[in-house]
Amino acid sequence: MTDTKRKVILVTDGDEYAKKAVECVAKEFGGRCISSTKGNPTVLSGPEVVKLIKKAKCDPVFVMFDDSGFLGEGSGERAMKYVAQHDDIEVLGVIAVASHTRHAEWTRVDVCIDKFGELTPYGVDKFGVPEMEMGRLTGDTVYCLDELDVPVIVGVGDIGKMAKRDHYSQGSPITKKAVEIILERSGYNG
What we know:
Layout: E1 6-11, H1 16-28, E2 32-33, H2 46-55, E3 61-64, H3 75-84, E4 89-97, E5 106-108, E6 111-113, E7 119-120, E8 122-124, E9 130-134, E10 136-138, E11 153-156, H4 173-186
Parallel strand pairs: 1-3, 1-4, 2-3, 4-11, 6-11
Antiparallel strand pairs: 5-10, 6-7, 8-9
Helix pairs in contact: 2-3
């Protein structure tokens, strides 16, 4: 029996910088970015996102979710939970994006990547600077990640930014490294 589940990487950011970074990296790994999931906040529902994932030409499929800093579970998190728990979807991992959220929502992470592309057991802030707490990242669309059964969560600063260190014109090296870790740790062999 073959596995027909779509292989998906979730990204907890959806602004224009994130979109360009994720599109750049998806292409490099032979995957697809569902660009229409861009939005701040996410406007597509979980069922709409699943339909788009199923139409993608190849795996891994990169999907963006954003809550725009709203307190608690916002539209991005509701859609992300629906996708992550769908029977036809296998989440390979999550790129958890740090932010200066006003409400201090956080999640546990397996590893973070700082703005220099170095792995760190400490959380990072939106600039990619390591923080004081180990294994914890503050962001605005990370509230529900602890509830999801995913193989790996990689924390990064503000995707596509970090003082241009992750800019798409440079190949988005920090996002790329996060994807490499997710693919390796999930055992994905596309």
